[in-house]
Design a protein that fits this description.
The chain is 41% helix and 17% strand. The protein has 8 helices and 5 strands; from the N terminus they run ααααβββαββααα.
């Protein structure tokens, strides 16, 4: 979050401002509904219960209704979620021999700071390798192999070791909308790089005096702090930020 928007990070973790509602955004409601559904589905060990129909009904029983404009929009998102889960059921890319973690909040004391995060799924694969996967419900497939840039999966590596007393061999993003999983193998060199990157980010935050906003056109629909952040509704700030972050070297003209 610090990399995505420093202002949002400040509101949540420094000012400790709690949003008026955690599910004010339809995208948050949609994502949380699917996460809760898969968490429960992954706990099922009885093949007679682990059916597509029951997966669909788990979605219905865990559906979060807040944030949608009207019933028609809610239904459209519900049908979209059913399609995502159907594709997942028919071709799961995270097949497991044994599930060890599902939707678990884990804390790790690093001395000067505490790491915390929710691991969506930790499991033993058929080759006995431990894998940690993070479900993504958005439409954009993006990742970085640089631990200095993307710290989400690296954090899960340390949290998994804290909970299971064993480092995972593989970490992955599972993009459910596309039914695509991106894996990365973990070795001792990676683990050292992860720890170094986390301490570098901690010191950056610790020594930070200003926390600028990173406004964009999605702030109003996706950020729970948009109602108290002036830049979130400032068109000049949004467009200026877009131009400032534009990499002109990517274009042919």
């Amino acid at each position: 979050m610090f990399k995505t928007c420093k202002r949002k990070f400040k509101y949540r973790y420094i000012d400790k401002i709690k949003p008026s509602t955690q599910s004010s955004s339809k995208y948050l409601s949609f994502g949380q509904s699917i996460h809760k559904t898969l968490s429960k589905f992954n706990k099922i060990t009885d093949k007679n219960i682990k059916t597509l129909n029951n997966l669909h009904n788990l979605l219905r029983s865990n559906w979060i209704r807040e944030g949608y404009r009207d019933k028609d929009e809610e239904r459209d998102f519900g049908l979209k979620a059913l399609k995502i889960l159907t594709n997942y059921f028919n071709n799961p890319l995270d097949k497991h021999k044994k599930v060890l973690i599902t939707e678990k909040m884990i804390y790790k004391d690093m001395g000067e700071f505490i790491l915390c995060g929710i691991i969506d799924k930790g499991f033993l694969r058929s080759d006995n390798k431990l894998e940690i996967t993070d479900y993504k419900t958005g439409g954009i497939v993006t990742h970085s192999n640089d631990f200095q840039i993307d710290l989400q999966l690296p954090i899960y590596v340390l949290l998994a070791e804290e909970y299971l007393s064993k480092y995972p061999s593989i970490v992955s993003y599972y993009y459910l909308l596309h039914n695509k999983k991106i894996d990365r193998e973990i070795n001792n060199e990676n683990i050292n790089a992860i720890i170094e990157a986390l301490w570098k980010r901690f010191n950056e935050i610790k020594n930070k005096n200003t926390f600028p906003c990173n406004p964009n056109e999605y702030c109003l629909s996706s950020c729970e702090y948009s109602s108290i952040c002036e830049e979130a509704t400032n068109e000049n700030a949004i467009i200026a930020n877009e131009l400032e972050n534009l990499d002109t070297s990517k274009y042919l003209f």
